[in-house]
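Issue: copy button drops trailing tokens. Both records pasted manually instead:
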Amino acid sequence: MYARIHLVTLSLAMALGLLTTSASAESPTLAKIKRTGTVTLGYRESSIPFSYLGADQKPIGFSLDLCSQVVDKIKEDIKLDKLAVTLQSVNSSNRIPLIQNGTVDIECGGTSSSAARLKQVAFTVATFVSSARWMTKASSGIQDVKALDGKTVVVTQGSNAVGFAQGIKAKGATFAIVQAKDHAESMLMLQSGRAAAFMEDDILLASLRARAPDPVAFAFLPETYEKVPYGLMLPKDDPEFKALADGVLRGLMASGAFTKLYAKWFESPIPPNGENLSFPMSDALKERVAHPSDALDF
């Protein structure tokens, strides 16, 4: 009799266990997080204000604030008393492979979505909208992209700017393209005069300029290129995990919390040196906040 009652109790417990883990079982990423008790966030060291190192060398930024909200929701959904958060530094070259091989669960950086990247990873609804531009030294006398002919320009490995610059060159430009390992090295090449111009998304250039010893020494060229959405980068083919992250962001956008976070990082003094990027929300991003979407077209 005792053995029969024990068997029934065990069966009920197993059934309940299956029910409580069904959501995570459908998502390979949530299942892994539940099994290990750890979620790993990727961060950038110099992608201001999205993700960068603060005065204590700990990562901070807009995207990390958004990711912390997603982590709270993960902990709630998989019903863990404790969820360890591991922070993994990533760069333009390894951020996608580290998502693909499962080392990183969410990249909390400043990464744009594209058709090519969507074949390898997934992105949440847009958290920012940017456009690529050129930045030069104000003293160079360069006024437009035509004046870059015959000169050396720099882009960062793995960034969308590589394709934009190559596309301009394919249409007849005669500048030479050099690829630096990260944004800091690209900026150093511009500062030192080894490159006449640095192409990158406008907000990343604005942040690098704000941190330069003499920000007015740098100027943007007038040309702008197509709008690109940024999002938190996630593993591909895990719709349940993407739905969880998207749901958190949609909630922040609907409540106004997203707009407050934007003002904190883009329109207010930010650590460690109190720079203010003075970068108001664009009309394109306002539209995405009102109607959240991960679409590439605008």
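Record 2 (pasted manually too):
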Amino acid sequence: MRTVFAKALHDQRRSLLGWGLGLALVVLLESALWPSIGKMTNLQQFLADYPEAMRKLFNLQDFGTGTGFVNGELFSALVPVLFLTYAIGRGARAIAGEEESGTLDVLLVTPVTTTGLLVQQAAALLSGLLALGAVLYAAILLGSALFGLGIGLGPLLFATLAMVLLAFEFGALALAVGAVTGRRATAIGVAAAAAVASYLLYVAGQLVTSIEPWRPLSPFDQAMSGGPIGAGFRWAYLAMPAVAVLVMAAAAPRLARRDIAVAH
């Protein structure tokens, strides 16, 4: 391969195909539930019986609309989990995985600096997530057309962007930790723990008054607050790639100082 970026894209082509097919299938299966759920005569009463905390957390007051259904069924947990799983796994594999398999030093003998290696791997990670975002966008539009969800092009575009940026932030964290430690398991553990802590802050911020002021610090709040379908573009979206850039900038000098050839 001519560049690290091209090699990274080539390496993830099969996994991207599998993730894309699985994601599209999940979206279409969930969308197929809408016609029967939307026609339930006692749906609002059924939703009113849920505890108030759950109605608030999952925006169940809007569940009787196509947009509210997709927000609750797909964007409240399932889609973020799928995107985060892919991003963290891919980010951890990008450098730490190459190092553990003994192929990273081969990349480093090519005309690329360690910072260039980090940047190109991050670009490949973002490209993969954008590809998954395109699949998500197309699958929801198809599901909306087939099952009458009434999802608009613009609102769905911003919601999809929010999922891509959310996953990129934690994928970049896994990439950075893997670059610093050379340990794939450590990279996955740190990024996954950060994601869980962030989600708990998002949930607790909605349920506990004293924690609510801290909720905007959670990337989940930045990505999902107000929808995400229907929230439109939010300036808070920019915080997620900004943090991703910061963690990789912090990792770059540590990666440059490491003696990778004798690290394992």
